[in-house]
Amino acid sequence: MSVPAEPGRRGGRLKSLSLLALLAGNGVVLLAWSQQWYVLHLDDRAIPASGQVAAGPLLALALTGLVLVAALALAGVAFRIILGVLQALLGGCITLQAALTIGDPAHASSSVLRETAGISGQHAADLVDRVDGSGWPFLALAAGVVLVLLGLLVAVTATRWPVSSRRYSRTRLVAPDGRSAAEALDEGDRDAADDAGVDVHGDDTAASTRPSPSPSSSPRPAAERDAVADWDALSEGDDPTR
């Protein structure tokens, strides 16, 4: 009988697969954008048009998606939901751009006519006799749809992802017996006072008759210590009670 995976491991696997899928989807959009999409036939000339010409905004959309993937790897739960929705919107924009280009390839590629054939104007696309397409526009369209679904998946499953480790996160120090660091330090001060011969619970007369430790060797009371300074001292390996 197989033992089911722990929730933390399942969440980590889900996070890894989601991030890899988002990277692959945006990478496919970048690859499609760099390829030749159409060939415009004008009289006896054949003018190629790449995705850079026919669907220029895909570059910015895909790069933005890659940045979102990097942010998702470090974001908290609330920001994961927001970034997932943003990724779905980016995928929708990619899908819309690819669909518009497929619907009217001559108009989408009209800028190449001005650069190659010297034809400009609003009706330049009407002079194109025939357009031969490739499969790259449809691949970009499919990648956009997948990115929409992946973005929604991230937004829905964001709470199941494991918490990202932060190197500089605030850490709470706890003594081996479960006490907080402040309580342990206070106890250490009382022990040091007892070792020095000071009766912290007795009257003033008893305290005055016993020798007091030198200022250089006596620890500072907990009330006089600055928590930030103590934390810095602990980080550097020094004992803040001295």
Automatic annotation (TrEMBL):
It holds the Pfam family Trp_oprn_chp. The chain crosses the membrane at residues 17-34, 54-74, 81-102, 138-163. Residues 190-204 have a biased composition (Basic and acidic residues). InterPro entries: Trp_biosyn_TM_oprn/chp. Residues 233-242 have a biased composition (Acidic residues). Keywords: Membrane, Transmembrane, Transmembrane helix. The keyword Transmembrane applies. Residues 178-242 are annotated as: Disordered. This is Trp biosynthesis-associated membrane protein. It comes from Schumannella soli.
